[in-house]
Specification:
This protein is mostly helical. The chain has one domain. It is 61% helix and 4% strand. The protein has a two-stranded antiparallel ribbon with strand order 1-2. The N and C termini lie far apart (38 Å).
Length: 90
């Protein structure tokens, strides 16, 4: 199955060097290009923010809690707590 072609547009942002280094380490760890990692993170973040518009503050707190639990489970599956100089919370 051929992936659906999505229209894209180049953007430019200023990014703190330390954040860029962290992104590079995560991209290397995930074996994905930095651009793909950032695009995926933006997509997930926008989806999340859009979903919060539909809920109250209690639901928002629950969404944050659930997101934290999901990310911890995912990190546990990876069975790694260090990414070449980037320590993940345990």
């Amino acid at each position: 199955m051929t992936p659906k072609k999505v229209e894209t547009k180049k953007i430019s942002i200023d990014c703190p060097v330390d954040l860029l280094e962290r992104l590079d380490k995560l991209a290397e760890f995930g074996d994905v290009p930095r651009q793909k990692l950032i695009t995926n993170m933006l997509d997930a973040g926008v989806d999340y923010l859009e979903s919060t518009k539909k809920v109250g503050i209690l639901h928002l707190a629950l969404l944050f809690r659930d997101l934290g639990e999901y990310l911890k489970k995912h990190a546990d599956k990876m069975k790694k707590t260090e990414i070449k100089g980037l320590t993940l919370p345990t």
